[in-house]
Structures are given as C-alpha cells and as structure tokens.
Amino acid sequence: MENPRTFHVKSFGCQMNVYDGERMAELLQAQGLSAAPAGSEADLVVLNTCHIREKAAEKVYSDIGRLRREDGTRPMIAVAGCVAQAEGAEISRRAPSVDIVVGPQAYHRLPELVARAREGGRALDTDMPVQSKFGVLPPRRRQGTSAFLTVQEGCDKFCTYCVVPYTRGAEVSRPWAAVVEEARALVDGGAREITLLGQNVNAWEGEDETGAVRGLDGLIRTLDALPGLERIRYTTSHPNDMREGLIRAHGEVGKLMPYLHLPVQSGSSRILKAMNRSHTAESYLDVLARVREVRPDIAISGDFIVGFPGETEADFEDTLKMVAAVNYAQAYSFKYSPRPGTPAADMEDQVPPDVMDERLQRLQALLAEQSLAFNRATIGKRTQVLIERSGRKPGQMLGKSPWLQSVHVETDAAIGSVIEVDIVSAGPNSLGGTIAAAPPTAVAA
Ligand code: 5AD
Ligand code: SF4
Fold it and tell me: Which CATH superfamily is domain 6-125 in?
C-alpha cells in the first residue's frame, strides 16, 4: 500500500471520542499528513467508533462498505475507538478491508500501525499501556472557540448495562500540571470555552503544585484564573461524585457555566439497584436540590434508559415522576440495548421492543415539552452569548447562551467574543436574539 499523504478522521458517539479524534488528527499532521475534507478524498480514513449501544456499534460496518471508491480502490482503513477495543481482531474477520484496529488507549501508536499496514500486514493494538498516550501525543494545535479537554478516562462503577468499564478501562485522572498546561495551550490557540471531559469527570483528582490533593472543583477554580478563558463546563458526571466542593463551585466560580449534565438513567430505585448505580432516586434529587440552592438558574440535563430488564410500568412511571420533579432543560433518552459481556444482557425479563418503543415515546414527549418550556422562558431575557461561528443566513452569527442553548443573532461581532443579547424567540433547538441596546449610562448612586 502507498504511503498515505492525506487522512480523514470521523468520530462517532460521545465528546471524548471527538476529543480523541482531534488528537489523532494532530498526531497525523505532526507526521506530515494533511487533513482531507472528506473520507472519499483521503488516503487514510480513521473511523473513531462508539460501542455504547448496538446501533452505534453496527454503524461502523456499513461505513466501512461505503469507503470503496468508484474505481474499486479503497483508502487505508483504521477502526479506532470503543468498537476497536471491544471487538478487536473480530473486526478484520468481519470486514477484511480494515487495515488497522486501534483502541482508545493506544492511538498514540497510530503512526507505527500505519507503517505496518503499508507493508501489507494487518495491524492491531488494543493494549491499555501503563504509559499514558497523553505523555506521547504532540502538543495541542489551534482549535475552535469552544474546546474539549479530556481530564479523566475510564470507569470503575460497572453499571450492569454499560460497556465503558471494559472499553475505556479503569478510572484514571490526568495529572494536574498536564491538564493546566493543555488548558493554557488551548486558550493560547484561541479557545474561549473549555469543556472538561471524562466518563466520570467529577471523580477527577490530582495533586496541585503544592502537593495538595484537589478535586475537580480545585481544577475549575484554577482555570477560572486563566486570562482569556471565558467559560468552563464539565461532562459527564456521576451523582455519587458530586462532592460538596464542586457543588459550592457552582455558586462561586464566575466562569463555571450554569449547566449540569447529571445522568440518572431511571426514576425507580428498584431499577437503579438492578443497574448497580449505587444511588437512589431520592439521593439524586437531593444532589440536584443542593446544586439549585447555590445556583438557582442552573440548567439540568440527564440521560435515561427505558426498558432495562425487569422494568415494569410502575417503574417507568417513577421515571416520568422523576422527570416531572426535576424539570430538565435538556435530556438524552435511549432504549436499553443489551451489550455483550455486561451482566444485564443475561438478566431475565428483557422488556419487549414494542413496550420499549412506547415508553421511549412517552418519555421523549415529556422531555421535549420541558426543554421547549425552558427555552421559551428565556424570551425577554438579556444574556451573554459566546459567538462560535457564522450562521446560515448572511450577517447572522451562531453562539451559545450560558445554559448551552444555540443562539442566532444578527451581528458583526467576531467569533470568540461574548456579547449581550436580548432573546426574542425560542424553538425546540435554538433561540433567536438581537444585540442588546447599549445599557443606559450608569448614574452614580
Ligand atoms: N443501552 C442503552 N443506553 C445505554 N447507555 C449506556 N449503556 C447503554 C445501553 N446498554 C446510555 C446511558 C449513558 C449514555 C451515555 O448512554 O444513558 O448515560
Ligand atoms: Fe457506564 Fe455507569 Fe460508568 Fe457511566 S457510570 S460510564 S453508565 S458504568
């Protein structure tokens, strides 16, 4: 096979995959390859895959088939991410055109794997090496206004439905200095917002310069002092790791945005127990009450699974009650998908697909109502919008509110600036605003 000169990385699934995709791209660029705008034009295509649900995992096989060009040739194909980790050599058996299989903890070795594949061999690396990939990857390059920064990976919680502990490995926190340095590099490269990422990001822990052990709140407070950085977010969190310091940070840290993604999965404590979530519906509501006490305007977002094995109509109604009690600004809901190797896949009382469909529809209808109401409640408010890119219409820019809503506004404000906007309209997915009139000249009191 020819030496690839161009590459294209396509990431599926969560934000951590988007981050990994960026780092793979930076690595390949450091090797002298250049980015192609589409897979069809690239010599090397990296499919950075997701294994969380069956549908996501199966998608990779149809994508591989689509990479064949009209003249019958194909690019060099690498399957990265969580499907690579979970299915390993099985991928090359099912899809012989795959040249490289590389797991989420081994992608710093991509250049060696490309070299091996060029010599005609199949290259597989799904190790979880002791030496972290982060120590080897090239420094961050310029990213957009809003940047991701993975600070924590893996999960030790072993919820009974979830593949993450198997595909991403044990919980590991990146060291304090590495994270602060990367945040600085991102801000120097133009980032105005940083979203700290981890499968259990609020379990992050590290020693600061003085040797003191700090939690995620300590990191957030340090980033708050970074000149040029305007906004800090973090995702995804586990309810049991919402420690007091982090909750307090929501009331005290100016740059920490009023948004919390806190998955609950079910409103039935019986199902939560079967899921091995190690929290109850009540303890989850309790955490949210404490967060809302310090930050009353916080937007709450969540994840839900309907149709977990054994879920009865009464359990599901508890989920609807939980949703009614919380009032979500945003939420993601899924039908339970049995994953190979997870305990729940072997449980009795799997819920029939039509029951799952019906429950998902009811849940999504309620969640959609809530998020529309949340968006509508911002009409008439003046708020700060971080401009991220130009909109579809000429003269229009697209930005984000503090509550992570997309806002369209006619303005000539530059990308990366934070402007005051009056919200005038709201739909299910975005808000419309106008530039706020200059505030009246302050009169000395
Ligand atoms: N089936 C359906 N949804 C799942 N999730 C994780 N595993 C499964 C599964 N087996 C959902 C959870 C999690 C989100 C990232 O994906 O809601 O929070
Ligand atoms: Fe999966 Fe549960 Fe860990 Fe989240 S906390 S990654 S759902 S095992």
Answer: Methylthiotransferase, N-terminal domain (3.40.50.12160)
